[in-house]
């Protein structure tokens, strides 16, 4: 038995606006994904349910921006009620008073 995708009542798209939830821009998808991953690890199926339909591509773009995101392949319950093999994404971000360096600084 694998990881079961459990959704919470937290609205990860709250800052996006009701009309834009279905068609999020790339940057909005980045914000939604980061917000969700800061809460807990998420599956591809969950990210799709909050409007991020190209999750692997968006994760790749976030990694290119410097975010450390791990991917594990898991068997999880899909939205269709069947088990599927899908990616589980985990954000590796320190929880203490860590400050992300400004863009362009080394």
What does this structure look like?
The structure is a single chain. 28% of the residues lie in helices and 19% in strands. By secondary structure, it is an alpha+beta fold. Strands 1-3-2 form a 3-stranded antiparallel sheet. α1 packs across α3. The protein is globular and about 45 Å long.
Distance between the termini: 44 Å
Estimate what percentage of residues fall within beta strands.
Answer: 15-25%
Mind summarizing the main beta sheet? 3 strands, antiparallel
SSE pattern, N- to C-terminal: HEHHEE
In the sheet with the most strands, the strands line up as 1-3-2
Count of extended strands: 3
Which stretches of 5+ consecutive residues score pLDDT under 50? 1-9, 16-20
Overall average residue pLDDT: 79
Structural Rg: 14 Å
Shape label: globular
Helix content: 25-40%
Specify the structural class: alpha+beta
Report the total helices. Answer: 3
Write the SSE topology.
Blueprint: H1 26-39, E1 42-43, H2 44-49, H3 55-64, E2 69-77, E3 83-91
Antiparallel strand pairs: 1-3, 2-3
Helix pairs in contact: 1-3
Question: What's the gist of this structure?
Answer:
The protein has helices at residues 26-39, 44-49, 55-64; strands spanning 42-43, 69-77, 83-91. It has 106 residues and is an alpha+beta fold.
């Amino acid at each position: 038995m694998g990881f079961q995708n459990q959704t919470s009542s937290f609205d990860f798209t709250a800052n996006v606006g009701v009309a834009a939830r279905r068609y999020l821009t790339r940057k909005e998808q980045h914000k939604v994904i980061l917000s969700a991953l800061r809460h807990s690890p998420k599956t591809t199926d969950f990210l799709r349910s909050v409007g991020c339909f190209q999750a692997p591509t968006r994760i790749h773009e976030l990694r290119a921006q410097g975010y450390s995101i791990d991917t594990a392949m898991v068997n999880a319950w899909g939205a269709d009620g069947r088990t599927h093999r899908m990616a589980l994404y985990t954000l590796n971000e320190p929880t203490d008073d860590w400050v992300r360096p400004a863009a362009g600084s080394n």
